[in-house]
Amino acid sequence: MKRLFWLALGLGAGAAGAIMTARFARRQMDKVAPSTLAREARGGLLDLSRRVSESMEEGRRAMQEKEEQLRRESGESRKLD
């Protein structure tokens, strides 16, 4: 009876381990599938392009502010002359 119990326990543990390993392997394969990699690359490129456009806009804004400041300063110094 003890042997039958341990045999059943070992078979159950082996089957559970095999199922868990197969599921893990399938998930890992899905992560490196070409469609998944392409989707992630596209998302990364979209994020990069968004950040670049935000940086350019911030640069334009800073440039305009500095230009306005310089124009105000040069205009004020002309009035003092």
Description:
The protein is mainly alpha-helical and 81 residues long. It has 2 domains: 1-32; 36-81. The protein is built from 2 helices and no strands. 0% of the residues are buried.
Structural domain tally = 2
Low-confidence stretches: none
Q: Look at the helices and sheets and give the structural class.
A: mainly alpha
Helix content: over 70%
Beta-strand fraction estimate: under 5%
Strand runs, count? 0
Main attributes of the structure:
single chain, 81 residues, mainly alpha, 95% helix, rod-shaped
Protein topology:
Blueprint: H1 2-31, H2 34-80
Brief write-up:
With 81 residues, the protein is mostly helical.
